[in-house]
Structure to design on (142 residues):
């Protein structure tokens, strides 16, 4: 059985955006390298929420709509995209109340747990924290 991992929005955004003049250029390089390491024994999962956040972040960075849409089409053809359910939302409340993450981060965590992921890669959450004895949060930029 393949290990399942969940990747948060920020990693995809850093991988897409590149400018050597930008302070985040080093993160861009790390994100690109990071996304290359997944192989056939790992199943990468994201939620529809990640797609929406990605779209929004790239629009804020003044990326052309057609370029974003093309990037999203490549993403959804390469990665499993899961829906948000009523259960995901309800579970996110429990996570938010227990771990004090934002609603949006709690929804990401709930999605990862719901789909049996063992690792959640994110820059925005506590590095190396274990959630419900199942999910380890890893910051790939550390």
């Amino acid at each position: 059985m393949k290990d399942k991992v969940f990747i948060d929005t920020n990693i995809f955004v850093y991988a897409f955006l590149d400018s050597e003049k930008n302070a985040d250029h080093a993160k861009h390089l790390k994100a690109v390298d990071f996304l290359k390491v997944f192989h056939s024994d790992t199943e990468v999962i994201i939620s529809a929420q990640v797609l929406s956040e990605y779209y929004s972040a790239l629009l804020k960075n003044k990326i052309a709509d057609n370029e974003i849409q093309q990037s999203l089409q490549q993403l959804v053809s390469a990665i499993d995209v899961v829906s948000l359910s009523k259960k995901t939302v309800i579970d996110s409340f429990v996570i938010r109340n227990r771990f004090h993450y934002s609603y949006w981060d709690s929804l990401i965590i709930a999605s990862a747990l719901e789909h049996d992921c063992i690792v959640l890669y994110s820059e925005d959450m506590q590095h190396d924290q274990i959630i419900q004895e199942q999910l380890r949060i890893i910051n790939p930029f550390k």
